[in-house]
Each structure stands twice: as structure tokens, then as C-alpha cells.
Amino acid sequence: MKAYTKEAGAFDTARCRILENGPLRATLRVRSRYGASALETDWVLYAGARTIEVRVNLDWRAHLKILKFCFR
After folding, report:
1. Mean pLDDT, rounded, of the chain
2. End-to-end distance of the chain based on CA atoms, in angstroms?
3. Which of 9, 15, 40, 46 fits as disulfide partner to 57, beta carbons 3.0 to 4.6 Å?
């Protein structure tokens, strides 16, 4: 069994933008790149919420590479 523990690289943060900042909800969009691949993450916080919603859109273009994705 292969573990795939070696890190080959990481996404760089390219742009951050506030999409909405209202009384009910605020959303921050972070766009990152890794080579030809693109990652778009929306961080959504609802008023009074104790959790945060994360929406991820990934365009993975790396040939013969496996993506192991985690939040830190």
C-alpha cells in the first residue's frame, strides 16, 4: 500500500475578494493557483452562526499527479 505522504507543492494565494458583506451573510473568495491548476474557495459566514461554510471549486490540470487536499 502506498501512502502518498510526500508533499510535491502547495497552492499560492493569488487574490482575495469580499463578494458580499451584508447583515445576514459575508462571503470572502480566495483564488489560488498551482501550476496550470486553479482553486477557488468561498468562505461564507452567516450572522449568528457558530460554523463557517466553505465552497470549493477546483480545476485540476496536473498530469499524473494525485491531489491530497486539506485545510490548515
Report:
1. 90
2. 26
3. 40
CB atoms within 10 A of CB 39: 20
Cell of 16: 482575495
pLDDT tier for residue 19 given thresholds of 50, 70 and 90: very high
The larger pLDDT score, comparing residue 23 to residue 11, is at 23
The C-alpha angle with vertex 18 and arms to 12 and 21, in degrees rounded to 5, equals: 150
Using alpha carbons only, what angle is made at residue 58 by residues 21 and 66, rounded to the nearest 5 degrees? 145
| Beta carbons of 19 and 28 less than 8 angstroms apart | yes
